[in-house]
Design a protein that fits this description.
Number of domains: 1
Helix content: 40-55%
Shape: globular
Strand content: 5-15%
Number of helices: 7
Radius of gyration: 18 Å
Structural class: alpha/beta
CATH topology: Undecaprenyl pyrophosphate synthetase
Order of helices and strands: EHHEHEHEHHEEH
CATH class: Alpha Beta
Bound molecules: 3-methylbut-3-enyl trihydrogen diphosphate, magnesium ion
Length: 242
Amino acid sequence: MPLVSNIIPEDLHVAIIMDGNGRWATAKSLARLKGHAKGADRVRDIVDAAMDMQISHLTLFAFSTENWKRSEGEVLGLMALFRRFIRSEAAKLFSRGVKVRFIGCRDRLDKSLISLMEGLEDQTSQNDKLYLTIGLNYGGRDEIARTAKKLALQVKAGAIDPQDINIEMFGSNLDTSGLPDPDLVIRTSGEYRTSNFLPWQSVYAEYVFEDTTWPDFDKELFEKTLGEFKGRNRRFGAVSSK
Ligand code: IPE
Ligand code: IPE
Ligand code: MG
């Protein structure tokens, strides 16, 4: 097994589009929700692996603003799974030093879920070993539009000058305010698209697409993707000295 812990740069931000739960289940003649439950088990393992590898920021895409288009049964099942996950994992995340934050629009989420999300954010707010960010009803376009609206209202109220709106100011008003941009975005299940995940923040991220579905994505594959990332030559628009 490749040892990557000694090559992880400080403050590395890995973001993952956890895709393929449904296909994993269908291939085994199981209900899609079984795939989501297995996917939730995988989240536990990958959070542990990220901590073992001393990754400082992990962002996971759990539910998109477009996922409401699915059947009512699947959506309700996913929401129940999110509630179950928070209840069962909160104590462990807290004691391991994980700081949890949710990004996305909360307006459409049910009150019991919002209060569990807020509770976990409050409980873990002083932690700093791993910054775990979870996209729940997250969509990049929605985030950008909400941010534009927020700034427009501040201009209208006279709180800010339109001339002061620039990249830094806009970025610091996004849901991800204060987080570094992702260095690496991983998508599982062989789909080559971003599906509205962190469009503002990922303009210079490296992408790794894995064929494996999320329920089968394990620590070894995670290490492999990090190895691939390490081999990339990041130029950020400049000319490389390599
Ligand atoms: C990802 O798996 C989980 C969510 C989007 C909630 P999918 O449910 O998209 O699985 P596939 O892509 O249908 O296999
Ligand atoms: C992206 O996966 C959203 C999450 C992983 C939460 P989707 O399965 O919703 O994306 P598309 O529909 O295949 O683009
Ligand atoms: Mg999918």
